[in-house]
């Protein structure tokens, strides 16, 4: 791996890291989700910083050109993040449905209470 | 007539413990109101609370302990309590600690109960204690005030702190971040020595894996909270 490529990937990883922290600082991303991006950025930073590890991994996976592993790592990390956030979105979808249901049921109860005349006795 | 102090008990899957905690509070603090915030428990905590006669909020979706405390503080704010005390529903926090904490509110806006200010029989696993010491050192550096027990969930809040935290209490296991957030907004935090107990029964939701996530979250908060604009100007 030549120096330009290595420094380029290190710079890109650092940019991703700084962006994740900045988005958390501005409250555009909550801390739990910013941590996922920070973990990914740190992983990419570690991989792009060490030629020895990259070459070792390339030998292990029988990859002729070690820098192509960085692209593979990027795709893999991107897929993992997409899967993680798909799980998060699914959880939020279920929560939204529960909240909508609870809200609708409460509204109906309030309407029922408002319709009762003031002297209506409470059920025992 | 509403009492002046609210004892707030966030609870998740504590059906076996919560009524004991409520009974202990009622016996030890008869002049305080109690509110349990059921954080969408999946066991029979909800049924237990229904039959207990205790005041409770049942959250329809799980918000985590931070969100549950925020909901309870909103309740406290709308009813004008002069102080709020957070106790855990697992029985770790002794009711005897509450009065000294309320007295300490004269000197500050928030009081944290610390297991480590004085010698006690409370035993913390070594790895967890190491993490706590690390967070404690960082927090003490960032806030200029001692923080001997940064992960303590035993807190008392003044009306100013209640008003602020009803909107801004951090989510998740956010005790270290809470102290930093309060200090940053000119709300003074003090500590009082307390003797905590082991949880009465059941398992903590804070497993080893979640402890690592909570620690990572705390470190991120230590970076971003000092850099954020203030949520509101200090009075």
Give short descriptive properties of this protein.
heterodimer; A: 124 residues; mainly alpha; 0% strand; B: 235 residues; alpha/beta; seven-stranded mixed β-sheet; 8 helices; 41% helix
How would you characterize the overall build of this protein?
The complex is a heterodimer of chains A (124) and B (235). By secondary structure, chain A is mostly helical. Helix content of chain A is 81%, strand content 0%. Chain A contains four helices and no strands. Chain A starts with a helix and ends in a 9-residue tail after the last helix. With 235 residues, chain B is an alpha/beta fold. Chain B contains eight helices and seven strands, in the order E-H-E-H-E-H-E-H-E-H-E-H-H-E-H. In chain B, helix 1 links the parallel strand 1 and strand 2. The relative contact order of chain B is 0.17. Chains A and B meet through helix 1, helix 2 and helix 4 of A and helix 8 of B.
Distance between the termini of chain B: 30 Å
Order of helices and strands of chain A: HHHH
Overall 3D form of chain B: globular
Oligomer: heterodimer
Which percent band covers the strand fraction of chain B?
5-15%
Write the layout of secondary structure elements.
The complex is a heterodimer of chains A (124) and B (235).
Chain A: H1 3-25, H2 31-49, H3 51-60, H4 68-115
Chain B: E1 5-11, H1 18-28, E2 33-38, H2 45-52, E3 55-58, H3 64-78, E4 83-86, H4 98-104, E5 110-114, H5 126-143, E6 155-157, H6 159-168, H7 175-184, E7 189-193, H8 208-224
Parallel strand pairs in B: 1-2, 1-4, 2-3, 5-7
Antiparallel strand pairs in B: 4-6, 5-6
